[in-house]
Design goal:
The chain is about 20% helix and about 25% strand. The chain is an alpha+beta fold and about 150 residues long. A hairpin with a 5-residue loop joins strand 5 and strand 6. The mean pLDDT is about 90.
């Protein structure tokens, strides 16, 4: 089973950054995420994938991150999600409104090399539960229930 690592970026207005994968139906949205490389730590993979898909450069030594223990299995049973969170409120030097979102990762050249992500949007957490992929929604719901690290 492949492990994907996703980063849930939550701004001061309790909005989650959602990305739209290129060439997917308009109602398919996600958090920045991707497959962990061999030998890569899960949080590092989530940070790297976020940078590749959004141009948001974060640093595990300079920012406060939270991770849910364990993983969430996708319905297909072929992938699992390792969920990580960063809150703008807990990182005073971050201002998500100042980022210029741009996807820097591209689908394999054999598929014409188009960007993996073609759109970005902030959606209030309460509305994202039915908006993002079900596995990601479950991770978000579990984090809200735990309230361990929510500001």
């Amino acid at each position: 089973m492949k492990t994907t690592c996703g980063l849930f970026l939550i701004n001061k207005a309790d909005e989650l950054l959602c990305v739209h994968p290129t060439n997917h139906p308009i109602d398919v949205w996600s958090v920045p995420k991707g497959i962990v490389d061999e030998g890569e730590e899960y949080l590092d993979a989530a940070i790297r994938e976020t940078y590749e898909e959004t141009s948001i450069l974060l640093n595990r030594d300079e920012h406060v991150f939270h991770s849910i223990e364990g993983t969430f299995v996708y319905l297909s049973g072929k992938k699992e999600l390792s969920a990580h969170f960063i809150f703008e409120l807990q990182n005073r030097e971050l201002d998500f409104s100042k980022f210029n979102f741009k996807c820097q990762s591209f689908v394999d050249d054999s598929f014409d090399g188009f960007p993996e992500v073609d759109s970005f949007g902030w959606v209030h957490v309460s509305k994202t539960l039915d908006f993002i992929h079900k596995t990601q929604s479950q991770a978000l719901q579990d984090s809200i229930k735990l309230k361990k690290f929510w500001p």
